[in-house]
Sequence to fold (857 residues):
Amino acid sequence: MAARPMQPPADADHVGYVLKGYPRLSEVFITSEVHRVEQLGLPLRLFVLTQAESGDRHPVVERVRAVPVRMPATTSLTGTTTGAWLRRNGSAFAPALRRVVRAHPLGVARSAGMALVQAVRARKRFWAAPRKLYLKEWLLAVSLADEVLTAGDVRHLHAHFAHGTTTVTWLAATMTGLPFSFTAHAKDIYSAELNPAGLLRRKLDAARFAVTCTGANVEHLRGLGSPTPVHLVYHGLSADLAAVARATAAGAGPRHAVGTAERAAAQPVRLLAVARLVRKKGLDVLVDAVAVLHARGRDVEAVLVGEDGDAAADLRARIAAAELGDRVRLLGALRQDQLGDLYRAADVFPLPCRVMDDGDRDGIPNVLMEAMVFGLPVVTTPVSGIPELVEDGETGLLVPPEDPAALADAVERLVDDAGLRLRVTAAARRTVTSRFDADLMAARLVGLLGGEVSRERADAPVAVG
Amino acid sequence: MSRAAASAFRPRVAVVMSGFPRLSETFALGELHALHRAGRLAGIFATKPGDPGAHQPLVGDLLPYVRLLPALPVTDQARALVTRLTSLASAGLHVDAVHGYFAHDPAAVAEHAGALLGLPFSFSVHAKDVRKVPATELARRVERSAGVVVCNGDVAASVPGPPGRVVQLPHGVDVTRFRPRPVGAVADAGDGCGPDGALGRPLRILAVGRFVEKKGFGVLLEAVTRLTHPWRLRIIGDGPLRPALEEAVRRNGSGTRVELPGPVAHDALPAHYGWADVVAVPSVVDSDGDRDGLPNVVLEAMASGVPVVGTDAGAIGPALRTSGGGLVLPAGDPRPLATVLDSLARSTAVRRALGAQGRTHAVAHYRLEACSARFVQHLEDLHGRTAHAAAR
Fold:
């Protein structure tokens, strides 16, 4: 009746997580998921397709038990021929290929056929050569299969991001005969270029199941017509953060809870947005909205927190052109504990997300949930999965994307209407804590992945007697 | 022989039970009672005595059928059964087939008796019974039988047989007796927990089952002590591990928060599900390799619209995954269980959603009438056909 020790037994069945990069600061949600899944008792092995990245690490990385196993480094495919690339990179894969062929000759042959068919199907013009990309992904799959066989206790593979990583995982699963599943995010399923020639549908067909982080994504994936089940698993918010937010709110009280009249007269309205400076976050619209508010005579300041991305230069130029240098500050990336103070000091959290032409978009930005548990009212747009979290007028305000004036109006409504603000922030906090708990989301994943592992066991001959 | 003629022949079946009636094994009652209602039940023959005072609903209708076989080896019990059936036949009550309700002794008795009488036999497989029969013997028994009924996929995986021989028919649950409590109905259960939705109200956790190792209640008692959220735990049932569980409660000082009210009359069970915010089914594979199949508590919780936290032992995981009625964790570790219970305590919306999914699934797939009717229909098809083939 005694409980099993926390450390999994040496021969425990493992799930192999396949990740492109790890640990990435911009993908802390994946590291957190890995940590939570391990804590819930599902033993993991991490297989990483690229080399370690330098730079800051989120503290959760230290708490993950699994040690990442990395595939050999490769040089870029662009501007080189297949032969030249193979001469430079092929030798790194040769020993693995020999071992995998010995263990699973048919699987290797089948996967090579699949990669070749895809390389031919996905070529950009009829007379073009087969795409080199799939040779590289096939070799990575050989290496992955080799590592999986070496580990000897991996019963199921799970990939994050439905494009390259899932392709590699699909090929490695074909080689080894293991089942696989994947988590889809956004760009990886909406951009046709990342999964050309019906590749996403074929991978979905081959997978045991797929999970994704918004109901909108679930609809999109189910719309592909595959019989494979697609499950909704939100990223969710850490209960620890919610507790921190609650504790501090009970103490000093958020700044925006102070009576508006005297505060509005004395202090500027503070806007806070936390987002990488990339186009899909719509921060340019936010800067324009600050200009609108300024022109309307509002005393307003905006703080933008996030590392530079493809929109950084445009944002800086836009701020300079509108002469808002003293009104809009770019703070770069910050740690979670530093963010807490900013959440508490702000009045409104605007995030006017947009869908990009190539299909890239946010799922449900985690920062919206963070702002909501800190009692900060959010203004955002009804794109992608955001309406699943923010209901207009109930748990925040929704405005159309690309509309600075509407965004400015919504900010003014929240600043001027204390009743609305109180109602919305209370409902928002309830929604996040009662619907988006990260541990429960991880438990759903553990249930799905654990089922595959135990099905593997059930499929094996069972001794009766 | 026309199909119509074959289906017009309705066989009467003698059922061999283990101990009967019992406090647990509620699933048997639904199926036997359906046979009785359909007029297909020739008799219930128990290989051992039942539990004293076991009076679940429906038992009353079945008691007149029950005959206890003498406490003898299986072959002698089979001979005793043959004597009983022959005297029934001479009284004008014909018997067309013998069904062993469990894979071990009851199926062996059914097999022997069937052979002696020249009647077809079939048997059901549940959970522990399959592990009481050596694999070769089980395979031989499946081979000789007219058909085998298994109640979940976990059992199906351990019963090999020619195509069509083994059929999976889940047990059902009474979805009219077990139903979601109306919103706000339990304003205050009088347990000091306060009304639904009250801030900081303790999470009410219910577990139901025999106090044996495979139910994993020890793990549950350890898990609740780790909760940061306030909680109450009620474990309904009884069994050999009661002293150990009581000792565990004493040791971790949770006496006022844990109730072990003992076995509960079946009529009173729905109210306990109505009390619960979450039902824990922390089953483990025990030291003998025994494990749960799909325990009734899972179906009752789903029918009651209460979310389930279960483990991947036996057939609990697949049922929860398919239904969406709960969460599935690795078996045997109190830490994940504590994490998830704590999260569920906060996540009222998730609890509601899981509960609603479970209820919908139970009504669609596990309705007692539908499941029992399938069982009766299957035995009729099986023995109507084989009896005719034999007659021809």
Summary: The longest strand of chain B covers residues 41-49. Residues 1-8 of chain B have pLDDT under 50 and may be disordered. The longest helix of chain B spans residues 368-391. The domain at 203-365 of chain B is CATH 3.40.50.2000 (Rossmann fold).
